[in-house]
């Protein structure tokens, strides 16, 4: 059975290199990054703080896959400052957040 920390590092790296809508990352359950949309090399995501009542607790961000990944790198320590967690159903979130922006 693989070490769960090592396994999570692999999953996190895979999701940062190929982000898909619903991919969810957290930093100690106090900060969340949720991928909302992916169009080619462009990614749209939100950063939110609990209780994650969107759009009030989040903001819309966009950039390339590389920009998305670099936004959460942990400096010189391998991996990211956030780690992959559950997947989230983000159907309709982006439209909802844009309406209230």
Query: Structural class of the helix and strand makeup?
Result: alpha+beta
The low-confidence runs, each spanning 5 or more residues with pLDDT under 50, are none
How much strand content do the residues show? 25-35%
Gyration radius, rounded: 13 Å
How do the strands line up in the largest sheet? 4-3-2-1-5
Please bin the fraction of helical residues. Answer: 25-40%
**Count of DSSP-assigned helices:** 3
For the termini, the CA-CA separation is 45 Å
Task: Report the mean per-residue pLDDT as an integer.
Answer: 84
Report the biggest beta sheet as strand number plus sense, adding barrel if it closes. Answer: 5 strands, antiparallel
In total, how many beta strands? 5
Large-scale geometry: globular
């Amino acid at each position: 059975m693989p070490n769960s920390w090592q396994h999570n590092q692999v999953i996190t790296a895979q999701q940062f290199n190929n982000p898909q809508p619903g991919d969810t990352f957290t930093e100690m359950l106090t900060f969340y990054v949720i991928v909302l949309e992916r169009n080619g090399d462009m990614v749209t995501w939100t950063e939110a703080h609990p209780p994650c009542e969107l759009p009030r607790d989040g903001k819309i961000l966009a950039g390339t896959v590389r920009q998305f990944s670099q936004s959460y790198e942990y400096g010189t320590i391998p991996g990211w400052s956030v780690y992959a967690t559950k997947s989230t159903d983000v159907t309709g979130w982006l439209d909802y957040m844009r309406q209230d922006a």
